[in-house]
Specification:
217 residues; 7 helices; Cytochrome p450; oxidoreductase; iron ion binding; 10 strands; alpha+beta; two-stranded antiparallel ribbon; Cytochrome P450; metal-binding; heme
């Protein structure tokens, strides 16, 4: 960049990261806690992987270590497949176009897509689409991402979320630090969470949990 507005541009980008990433990361983390509290086997796999990569009872010391936590990455992606922070989004067609199924879209038409619905469609994710299975993102133990147009949680193509990597870094780092030290139990009785409509997904009534230090540490 070489224009006089470079500093303003960078400032605006940083502000966009902070504002757009605050509520969405909080939403993703809340849903992740809900799912892990009900899938102890996933928590155990995350803890075992962390102990192998970082060492038992050792803190995260580098970005490289976080990159080696493939199961944790798979679990976060799987959580957002079922509970995306942004349930739906819209774009406007710049030119007349025809979708792959033959649908004609006139210029200026508002097109809305729904990551929440897409993440639960059997035609996209198979007969186990409603199950929380981090393993669907792994190949021989290595994280393998899906086509972003199949998994539009961070949008795709030219419109991909600028803060994607920062959001994933925050989500994984916070979740890892919490679940290596604490156990989370959803306060009973608590029904299956329901998303509240809005710009960013929230759980109706919040998520009451009981937090205890891990007894095995």
């Amino acid at each position: 960049m070489s224009t006089v507005s470079d500093e303003t541009f960078l400032r605006d980008i940083v502000i966009s990261f902070l504002l757009a990433g605050r509520d969405t990361v909080a939403s993703a983390l809340t849903s992740f806690i809900w799912l892990l509290a009900n899938h102890q086997e996933v928590v155990s796999s995350i803890q075992l992987e962390a102990d192998r990569v970082m060492g038992p009872n050792q803190d995260l010391t580098s970005f490289q270590q976080l990159q080696e936590l493939h199961y944790l990455q798979a679990a976060t992606y799987e959580s957002m497949r079922l509970y995306p922070p942004i349930q739906f989004d819209s774009k406007f067609c710049q030119e007349d176009d025809v979708l792959p199924d033959g649908t004609f879209v006139k210029r200026g038409t508002r097109v809305t897509y729904h990551p929440y619905a897409m993440g639960r469609m059997e035609g996209i994710w198979g007969p186990d689409c409603l199950e929380f299975k981090p393993e669907r993102w792994l190949r021989d133990g290595v994280f393998f991402p899906a086509n972003p147009f199949k998994y539009p949680v961070f949008q795709a193509g030219l419109r991909v979320c600028l803060g994607k990597e920062m959001a994933l870094l925050e989500l994984k780092a916070v979740a890892l630090s919490l679940f290596r030290i604490f156990q989370f139990q959803v306060v009973a009785p608590y029904p299956t969470p329901r998303f509240c409509p809005g710009l960013t997904a929230t759980l109706r009534g919040g998520l009451p949990v009981l937090v205890r230090a891990r007894a095995d540490l």
